Amino acid sequence: IAQKLLTISVEDALSYLDQVKLQFGNQPQVYNDFLDIMKEFKSQSIDTPGVISRVSQLFKGHPDLIMGFNTFLPPGYKIEVQTNDLVNPLQPQAMTPTSQSNPSIPAYPSPRSPPMQLHPPLSGTPTGPPMQNNQPVEFNHAINYVNKIKNRFQGQPDIYKAFLEILHTYQKEQRNAKEAGGNYTPALTEQEVYAQVARLFKNQEDLLSEFGQFLPDANSSVVSGGLKSYNNKKPKLLNLKDSSVAEASKHGVGTESLFFEKVRKALRSAEAYDNFLRCLVIFNQEVISRAELVQLVLPFLGKFPELFNWFKNFLGYREMSHIETYPKERATEGIAMEIDYASCKRLGSSYRALPKSYQQPKCTGRTPLCKEVLNDTWVSFPSWSEDSTFVSSKKTQYEEHIYRCEDERFELDVVLETNLATIRVLETVQRKLSRMSAEEQAKFRLDNTLGGSSEVVHRKAIQRIYGDKAPDIIDGLKKNPAVSVPIVLKRLKTKEEEWREAQRGFNKIWREQNEKYYLKSLDHQGINFKQNDTKVLRSKSLLNEIESIYDERQEQASEENASPPTGPHLTLAYEDSQILEDAAALIIHHVKRQTSIQKEDKYKIKQIIYHFIPDMLFAQRGELSDVEEEEEEEEMELEEGASKKHNGVPGSGSPSKSKLLFSNTAAQKLRGCDDAYNLFYVNNNWYIFLRLHQTLCTRLLRLYSQAERQIEEEVRERDWEREVLGLKKEKNDNPAIQLRLKEPMDIEVEDYYSAFLEMVRNLLDGNMEASQYEDSLREMFTIHAYIAFTMDKLIQSIVRQLQHIVSDEICVQVTDLYLAESANGASGGTVSTQSSRSSVEAIYQRKAEHLMSDENCFKVMFLRNRGQVQLTVELLDTEEENSDEPMEAEVRNLTYSTTPELREHLARKPVFLPRNLRRIRKYQKGREQLDKEACEGGKKSLEKEKMECMFKLNSYKMVYVFKSEDYMYRRTALLRAHQSHERVSTRLHKRFQAWVEAWVKEHVTRDMSAETNKWLMGEGRDGFLPCTTSRQPEVLHFMNINKYRVKYNTSTKAP
């Protein structure tokens, strides 16, 4: 009966299981119940009729599934479904329930599992599930085995895929043999399958032994076939003809039989001994080489050095000299693993020399020149520290496109050149045959090279065209070249024309891809610049930058018990005053096209850009256009004689004065001075505008400088080619243009910068796409163009801040205060006379701090020294120095001089230290706020006094009332703590680390340190539980730490 079992393919089982899942997608319990039925049948809890009954009941109402189950029933069993859904099971009458066979459902662990008919193990194998009534290995056993492989090599998916490929190839060979009806000999036998799996599962004895249960022929050959001679070069091992190893002495010498007896006793397991014999069988069948046999038996004999050495000596195996010449195409994988590169000769950090005993693989196509220039000695052997933070450069998406095009082009070129080389070889053979007689042609034969110089190149070309039939074609070319060469040559030429035509189509696609992505692939910084720059130029980011510097100084001063240092927090440079004109032109160009800005505000913005900013930067003023001046004159005539208000600030009676804000300032008079400064106290909006304006000028200058460098390089290259080579370089002689990587530019190098400014205007106006703008910049400025990608966003941010400056009340008051103090001489002058203006500048500062008491106050200075202009910004502390009384402000800023006026003032009012005044005023202000909130019922106060106490009359002891307390909270304390947390933690850690290193250097020796590291890693210590310790560097609380993780073996319970 077992011989009559149907051979079911895995595809059938997969299809059936998928149907069950599809039909009961909303009822997963049905699918699980079906698997439970199969498990119960495996354990012999139910018989075949019981399976039929339960499956029919489970799939009731689904006749297609019930009828489909017939495929997996043993011969004689059948399920019929009638029209009224009644199930009629049929079974053979001559069979009893105890002799019925299992439904032969093959193993199917996953959709990727290739089809393979698994077979039962040897009846004499002591381990593994026993055979039941000569039935095949059960369905669930095969599933569990393949799942075990998948889980074992979860981190090595290549091994699992290779295993599935072996099974797929084996089943394909078996199917071909069955269809041929005995006229086809499978190229892959069970012994070869076992050998391939054995190489794949190195050091995995349990998987290998369990796999042997599914290959009865390979297993029986171990017992019946024994070992035979490999070839004349290999020693003859025992030729065992009987299944009993005890009879081996009848057929072999005593030493050999004694060796096998020792091995059988040493392994202590019949299963392990059978696996050892399987390795010898596949070696005798010339499936594996001598070196591979040694690798296979290493798990068996590695623990017994005496037996292992005898075995290697008997094989004639020598370390580092075991390169086999059979089979010819066998790769030498694994050989490199046997070389100890650490002990080889070293060249630099990454190269090692192969040992002299290493036998080089044969290469038949080398010429004397190849032997002279090619490297056969040095191999790459990179090494790095585990703690290294080096990260390899990651390709951008545009680089990936370029690399992919090159890979595809290379692969196609290899195919075409291989095919062309084969055509040339066969054409030579054909011409040779044409000169022969018929008898000579009949006797003519080709060798493995097919008339050429390489065995591999031409064989690959034929395999690429003929596929599985390639061996027959090659065999025909060797035995009967007169007939086969013209046929194969015609086919090769046909394919040559097809592939050349396809190459022409691909070249067009590749050229388009290269032109599209070439410049973008070179631009590494432009990918992330746009996103990061948007964050950097936000108003919040610019304010946080200077506030963090301010807080750091305050924190440092408080730790050192010193007064906070004075001086600028930021220093920015204006390197070229000529660039101010380009920046002003771009800003005003965008301002003119903003419909949301009133006409009067636009004129004020123009005055700021054309007059005020150049005056502050000691540059030439810009000129307003004639049209604008005429419009202003007409407006002044209409408004003459009437005073008006603008931005909430009353204007003067003269309209000309209300329009011309910066007609006569001290900064305008300092333009010719070389050593001078301008002073300006500003709020947040002015500060952000000045930062953005300086950024715009810097970026414009960088692009202008790059354009100048490109002009110089172009002129230098043209002169060199004209003088040295006598050539005149054309515009399209650029290598990238010649290689069709980019289109030629219509703009001359001399016009790059002006063309860039025009593109920015078009981008601001919406007449140009952002992608086209970026591509044009890359063509002109190459990898330096990224700095201008966000130019439109930068200008738009500047215009928004200018709109606030001319419309917000506080901003207008800041400007008016500057103009008023400028008339008093408090807004700057020459550096040499600064001391004479200290008092008026101090008054200007106090007024500015009072005006900007609700927001930040910045002290901005424009310094000019030896032609260099710098912008310095200092954030002032206005939180504690605000006062509503001018007298107290004067007391805070006392200058200790003995003038009569000061003595008279001190006689009228007591003198307090400024810090005491600040504290008392702050306390009084806080108390007033608390009282106000208490009256309004507010609960969010910064200070509460609820402390209550009671006295015991009998003991006169004072006790505090439960849940009554006083607490005080300082504003911005938590924010400053968050901001200074990293700095304080890092400094304290460095201080502690310095102390530890000094102590270690004095008290800890190098050996003690090494022992400590070994103890941490669990090395070199007896009595430790078996475990694996790994060290992972991490960053915790802004500090680098080493995190040790201990993983105990599954068989050992961790403490």
Automatic annotation (TrEMBL):
Gene3D superfamilies linked: Paired amphipathic helix
GO cellular-component term (any): nucleolus
Gene Ontology BP terms: negative regulation of transcription by RNA polymerase II; rhythmic process
Compositionally biased intervals (Pro residues): 106-118
Location within or outside the cell: Nucleus, Nucleolus
Domain Histone deacetylase interacting per the UniProt entry, residue ranges: 343-443
Bias-annotated ranges (Acidic residues): 625-640
Any one GO molecular function term: transcription corepressor activity
Record key words, sorted: Acetylation, Biological rhythms, Coiled coil, Isopeptide bond, Nucleus, Phosphoprotein, Repeat, Repressor, Transcription, Transcription regulation, Ubl conjugation
Region Disordered, residue ranges: 90-128, 625-658
Polar residues bias: start-end ranges: 90-104
Top-rank lineage group of the source organism: Eukaryota
Subunit note: Interacts with ARID4B, BRMS1L, HCFC1, HDAC1, HDAC2, MXI1, SAP30L, SAP130, SFPQ and TOPORS. Interacts with OGT (via TPRs 1-6); the interaction mediates transcriptional repression in parallel with histone deacetylase. Interacts with BAZ2A, MXD1, MXD3, MXD4, MBD2, DACH1, NCOR1, NR4A2, REST, RLIM, SAP30, SETDB1, SMYD2, and SUDS3. Interacts with PHF12 in a complex composed of HDAC1, PHF12 and SAP30. Interacts with TET1; the interaction recruits SIN3A to gene promoters. The large PER complex involved in the histone deacetylation is composed of at least HDAC1, PER2, SFPQ and SIN3A.
Function in brief: Acts as a transcriptional repressor. Corepressor for REST. Interacts with MXI1 to repress MYC responsive genes and antagonize MYC oncogenic activities. Also interacts with MXD1-MAX heterodimers to repress transcription by tethering SIN3A to DNA. Acts cooperatively with OGT to repress transcription in parallel with histone deacetylation. Involved in the control of the circadian rhythms. Required for the transcriptional repression of circadian target genes, such as PER1, mediated by the large PER complex through histone deacetylation.
Protein name per its UniProtKB record: Paired amphipathic helix protein Sin3a
Organism of derivation: Sphaeramia orbicularis
